[in-house]
Amino acid sequence: MFETIKVITTIAIVTVLTGCQTLPNTSVKKPTSTVETNPLTARMPAIDRRGYIAYIEEQGVGTAKVSSLYSIRPDGSDRQLIDQLNGYIYAPAWSANGQLLAYSKQAPREHPKIYIYDRSSNTRNLVVNAEGSNMSASFSPDGQDLLYSSTVGGNSDIYKMRLSDGKTQQLTTLPSTEVQPSYAADGKSFVYTSDKVRAGRPRIYRYDFATGNATPVSTNGYVASPQLSLDGQRMAYLNGRKAAVMTLTTGQVVNLAETGLDEPARLSPSGNYAVYPTRRLSVGGQAAGQSNGSLVIHSLSGNTSYAISGQDGGVVRSPIWGR
User: Fold this and answer.
1) What b/e readout covers 42-52, taking b as 16+ CB neighbours within 10 angstroms?
2) pTM score, two decimals?
């Protein structure tokens, strides 16, 4: 969903905190992985079936909201709890090598802050604590930089941070809402969402680092939350109220589903599969589970789908597929 961002007028400097917190053993269940033999994933490219899908599961409402961040293999095995809090977790994003996971976390009466979880050391670091709404992180392909949106300057704009020292550059300076940046795999550009033409009617743009110019991606109607495939041929996004994938060379759009959550699709590392959350009772004729939310994995070539139920019976949101 196109982010509704509260305007914060207090300006602060983005800081990188040096404290590193080691997480407790958070394994939910860790059976021997079946990703190589499970019939649901056996035909997947190795880059997909050996990867992890991070997602958020929410329970409760208002002050009783509890958000949990999990990772899981695409066959439903090896589910791990990464983080949990009384509050909200938003927009996880993997680094290109699948070792780091960035996400926003908002405790009650606090602004959203961006953390990075390191899978190899089981630690997390607070990296963006600007006085504002800090959302939708995206790693550069080399893992050296982080794009994100923030209201630190009043309007929501897109910033680029060098992770080694926290040096930050503001990339957009418009009086409109610029959010949801997502790097292209070559690192030369990124796509993002903006309502600069008409407030409340977002469009998708591509920003070129070499020129500093942004050009619209050809789409129709209400669109948001773009993600490019690694080969640059496809774009997953929210098309109206549907999770969708576009082939950029032809403009052909495949609307996968109206999820009931206004959530976009996200592509697998190979670009041959898409994942999205749903609250519907069945997927492709298959029961989606007894929980309120499930992950749906859809083959873009075979037009087949299967579902993985959530862990806690809550609402499943924002899945992202990494290596």
Assistant:
1) eebeebbbbbb
2) 0.87
